[in-house]
Specification:
alpha+beta, Deoxyribonuclease I, Chain A, 343 residues, single chain
């Protein structure tokens, strides 16, 4: 009788496979712990947080598979990365459910043009999406003249150019009137200058920020660190966090004053990285997390490595968020449709 109740031994290949899954779960959990403790200060933890959409993706499926095989040690090992993946990616599945959406009042696009790339991607973005406001990064002396005469966008504000080798800066190009431009003060040394631009949107004052946080230099050799204005990995990470906190303070002040805010740009940070968290803690809503239906990995070739380009808002209702075609740039644009709240 006892022999009949004893389950048959599992095949060797299955035991080996379950061991691999358990090892993946344990390693992924350790990496998540390192990311939580070390944040963006090391190349490993910064890169792991940046690319988390990829290496966390198998975890939920592995939990289901291990549970079906009643391999509870594997379920336990993979549980933490599976939960983190569900928290990060779950909203995109939920956002696909049907619901009543308000009509958009404003369409904003953020796009890192890439310093040396032609503007074909921008022209394609305008033809396809017709955004009301363009938040642009890595505008150079080469691209600025074309942006100054961009058809249909008579209002523009260009930030200060920085850099010794290729000078670039941020810009706000708009169909809507610009009523005020003021530099953001209090940014740390080495940060890209940014202006707080005020738009007149049908009689409402909208505060707009086009930002580009410090570029990473993962695993840079000393000679490359000298070229990168933000320095090596840890220096760039500290600079990004300090920049994000300053922008968070600016946004919090505007929110406290009852002003609607749009902040968009190249954050060089994904959802598991610290800067995006700093901005959300200030009361800004990540539009793509609120209404996006796909991860939208905007940086890198092919499907991308990470969503580092984002639009965040306060005082406006997210309606739609999609990733546009990258074109010649190394970044994809993000398009956000927004509506004024009722009342």
């Amino acid at each position: 009788m006892l022999r009949r109740l004893t389950p048959p031994p599992r095949p060797r290949w299955l035991r080996w496979s379950l061991g691999v899954l358990a090892s993946y779960g344990a390693l992924a959990t350790l990496v998540l712990l390192a990311v939580a403790v070390l944040r963006d200060r090391t190349a490993l933890t910064y890169g792991a947080a940046l690319a988390s959409s990829w290496w966390l993706a198998p975890a939920p499926l592995l939990v289901v598979a291990a549970a079906a095989l009643r391999s509870w040690p594997v379920v336990t090992a993979v549980a933490v990365p599976a939960v983190v993946c569900a928290v990060l990616q779950g909203p995109y599945l939920l956002n696909r459910l049907p619901g009543d959406e308000p009509e958009r009042d404003l369409r904003v696009a953020t796009y890192n043009l890439t310093q040396t790339a032609p503007l074909d991607g921008l022209y394609d973005l305008i033809a396809r999406e017709q955004p009301d406001v363009l938040l642009l990064q890595e505008v150079t002396d080469r691209s600025r003249p074309a942006l100054e005469v961009l058809p249909g966008y008579p209002y523009r504000s260009f930030g200060t150019f920085i850099g010794e080798h290729v000078r670039d800066g941020d810009a706000v190009v708009s169909r809507l009137p610009i009523t005020d431009v003021a530099p953001v003060t209090g940014l740390p040394e080495g940060a890209r200058p940014t202006d707080l631009v005020t738009l007149d949107v049908g009689g409402r004052a909208l505060a707009v920020l086009s930002v580009h946080l410090a570029s990473p230099c993962i695993g840079c050799l000393p000679d490359k660190e000298a070229v990168n204005p933000a320095g090596g990995t840890s220096e760039a990470a500290r600079l990004r966090v300090t920049e994000a906190r300053r922008y968070a303070d600016v946004a919090a002040g505007l929110i406290a004053a009852g002003r609607p805010v749009v902040l968009g740009g190249d954050l060089n940070s994904a959802p598991l990285n610290q800067p995006l968290g700093e901005l959300r803690d200030a009361g800004l809503v990540d539009v793509h997390r609120a209404v996006g239906t796909w991860p939208a990995l905007t940086r890198g070739p092919g499907p991308g490595v990470a969503r580092v380009d984002a639009v965040l808002v306060s005082g406006l209702v997210p309606v739609r968020s999609v990733e546009g075609a990258a074109g010649p740039s190394t970044h994809s644009p993000m398009i956000a449709d927004l509506a004024w709240p009722d009342g």
